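WARN no homologs supplied; continuing
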Amino acid sequence: ITIFPGTPTLERWRSMELINMRSFTVTASVELGEGDRGWLVAHGDQGGGYGLFVDRGELWWLHNDGKGRIRRLAGGPVGTGAVDLAVVVTAPGGFTWDVALTVGGEERATDTGYRMLFPMSPFEGIDIGIDRRSPVSWEIYETDGPFPFTGVLHRVRYDPGDDAPDSAWRWIDTLREMGAQFE
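OK structure emitted
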């Protein structure tokens, strides 16, 4: 799904379908000037969520596990001009995500073991260029409010990937096969 600037918060259920028990990639196509900063994407709220943002000239991933733990990953300098900034989230199993940040297609940082968000969290849908409602990060909200992106945000694209190996969705075919034996 591609989300364009000015789009209202993407509905919660549709947003969850893009990330639930699976790998996914989020790519923001932007133009950056000196000092531009703010949220590229924010999905969730104080009860759990994640976001991708630019601050102090760097790309950042923030993950709120919903249990009071906030983790950040710095993706290094973003420079100025037109560039695609992305987070590649892989679901290796064990209800966890591994994360890679890319700038212009170049991998800049990786980290592992982020707690997968499910089944109810995040309670809020996806915002691009701002974090409109209950914030994913109170710390950012207290200093910058909804932290609107000050550069040019052309679009944000979500590409859902494979289901996690231990995803319940992978069991559906197995259960159908088992049930067919009794027909």
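Helices lie at 12-17, 138-144, 171-180.
OK
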